[in-house]
Amino acid sequence: MKSKLLLFFIISILTANAQKKYVKTYYENGALKEEGWLKNNKKHAYWLFYHSNGEIKEKGHYKNGLKNKYWYFYRQNTTLHKEGHFKNGLKNKWWLFYDKHNNIINKCQLKNDKKNGYCLIYKQQKLVSASRFKDGKKIKEWTDFSSFRQENNLNDLRQ
């Protein structure tokens, strides 16, 4: 009987610690600051963060307390600032960066928070240059699309 009671107590503690709960925190002015799921006291699943004016600041998923999957980041005036993939809390794959008018100003391939692959620069919605990076260091730059196309496999841009 004592062993069953002890087993029940241990299972209850483990279950209580592993439960998910939805939390919200607020700014001093009463505006919602963030909301999302906690699991084992770590951010988990979908989260929303807000600017103090109530507009969305960022949104995305967590896994074990680290940013994961696809995220969006916004300015206080609601325009998109940047978006991209996280893996274990680090920026990976393609990231897109926007100007204050929601026009793309560059697209970069990242790996573990470093530029790794192509980085494309846009002005007035036109591609003006491209660079290739390896572990955060620039290894090549092109200032016209024809030379870029001749030297690169455009399928590499799909990754």
Task: Give a quick rundown of the structure.
The chain is an alpha+beta fold and 159 residues long. It contains two helices and eleven strands, in the order αβββββββββββα.
Topology:
Blueprint: H1 2-18, E1 20-26, E2 32-39, E3 42-50, E4 56-63, E5 66-74, E6 80-87, E7 90-98, E8 104-111, E9 114-123, E10 126-134, E11 137-142, H2 145-151
Antiparallel strand pairs: 1-2, 2-3, 3-4, 4-5, 5-6, 6-7, 7-8, 8-9, 9-10, 10-11
Give a description of the structure:
This protein has 159 residues and is of the alpha+beta class. The protein has a single domain, classed as Histone H3 K4-specific methyltransferase SET7/9 N-terminal domain (Single Sheet), CATH 2.20.110.10. It is built from two helices and eleven strands; from the N terminus they run αβββββββββββα. An eleven-stranded antiparallel sheet has the order 1-2-3-4-5-6-7-8-9-10-11. Strand 3 and strand 4 form a beta hairpin.
Main traits of this protein?
single chain, alpha+beta, Histone H3 K4-specific methyltransferase SET7/9 N-terminal domain, eleven-stranded antiparallel β-sheet, 2 helices
| Total DSSP helices | 2
Q: Which percent range fits the helix content?
A: 10-25%
**How would you classify the helix and strand content by structural class?**
alpha+beta
Q: Please outline the major beta sheet.
A: 11 strands, antiparallel
Based on CA atoms alone, the radius of gyration comes out at 22 Å
Percent strand equals over 45%
Low-confidence segments, given as residue ranges, are 5-10
Q: Cα distance, first to last residue?
A: 59 Å
**Can you give the mean pLDDT?**
87
Number of strands: 11
CATH superfamily: Histone H3 K4-specific methyltransferase SET7/9 N-terminal domain
